[in-house]
Please model this.
Amino acid sequence: MTRKIQLDTDTLLFFASIFSNAHENCILIMNEEGMVLGVSSSFTAYFHYTEDDLVGKFPRMLFTPEDQQQKKFEREIENVRTQGFSSDDNYLVNKNGVYTWVSGEAVLVENNRKEKFIVKIVQSIHEQKTLETSLRNSSNFVESIFKCMRDALVVVNGSFTIQKANTAFRSIFWPSHQQVEGENLFEINPVFSTASGLRQKIQDLTTGNDCIPDGEIELVAPDGKRRNFKSTLSLIEDEPATEKRVLIAFHETTAEREANEQRDDLIGFASHELRNPLANMVLCTELLQDSIEENNPEEAQDYLSRIKFNINRLNTIISELHDATKAGSGHLQIEKKPFIFEDMVNESIETVKLLHPAYTIIKTGHATIQINADRYRLVQVMNNYLSNAIKYSFESRKVWVHLQAEAGQVITEVRDEGTGIAEDQLPFIFTRYFRAAKTMNVEGLGLGLYLSSEIIKAHGGRVWLNSKEGEGSTFYFSIPLA
Ligand code: ADP
Model:
């Protein structure tokens, strides 16, 4: 709204005296209703309005549409009238539409004729605000990286007090505590004291000395698992006068250590396991030679079948090793074809019987149904279950196989009355390389059950067992029919 205004000389002089000394601040003078009576030249220069644009008007156009909708101008005038002043930081819209962050303060003043005016002083804080926003953005950015990093990150000062830590750090090194800031790094978890020279390295970095900023620590997690971390320290480049701080990143290397250990184990196992049947074959070949020279065909036949047995054994070891590396990298191949499940079981029982004629394998139940699966791989599972039942039976000479085809699946169980497995070792039986303590003296790689479970899983089935030490074991696998 525009209104023609007439101001007397005294008032104009009064305004001029207010405007004259203000160069940095932009000033608007309004009447008690908020209509502009005068505007300083710094205001018009800064925000590109002319006096005519403002004088005699209610300056709502200085507010953004959002602020206008919230009636910011009206509320400001109301506040000044009732409380004598009002202040706020908001955007001021320039005549060319550009927004500038300003800090504004409006006060109610009175001249000697008791006439009241509102003096509004506006100062641009655009640069501060822009800087503040970009600082906030970059701090949010750093904060979110810090938070989502899987590596454990911690910032400590020269007295080892934790200044900041991410979620990964807390959950690994100080679980079940919300706040770690303010604690001493070496008091929250003894693992840090075991890290070679960590204390010294922090001291060296914060006092300006050189150090090798890498190290390693090992931690035993609450579940008993060994976890390894590589630590990397770096000095945070702050202003010279501020306290020196060090960022420590702990990168987990457990998987690398385990892979190295597995590789070493594998080489160890393989050479140990291959040596036995080979040595046996060398011996049998020499004895076979003697039997031929002595023209003793019965003995020669015996040595020949022993050599055959060892060739079989070598074959199994080599394919287990080969399959285990394939299964480990998710490349175990399954070729499904339809066949009668029970035929596959019978084939396996016959093969194992031939290899172990002294044992009786008793089959109960039926599964004369057709399934779509990898027959060769399922024979491998059956052979493994059956040969384990025999291998770990010791005195007992009987093994039971039971088949059961029920709604949607076929279940096979292989039971023995052998050595059994201790309860605390049951959860690990299908793990790669696992061998129960009691059976360490028996030949084996600890791969057969792992492979069996991988094969059954690849068919969408399940493996499990019941076992009691000294009483025997029952191993199961199920295959879905669909
Ligand atoms: P391997 O027999 O070559 O060691 P497996 O993966 O077939 O490897 O078996 C893993 C371990 O599980 C064996 O070393 C043994 O300790 C235990 N185990 C398997 N089957 C039986 C069983 N029927 N009775 C007792 N222990 C068994």
Notes: The chain has a mean pLDDT of 88. The first strand starts at residue 26 and ends at 30.
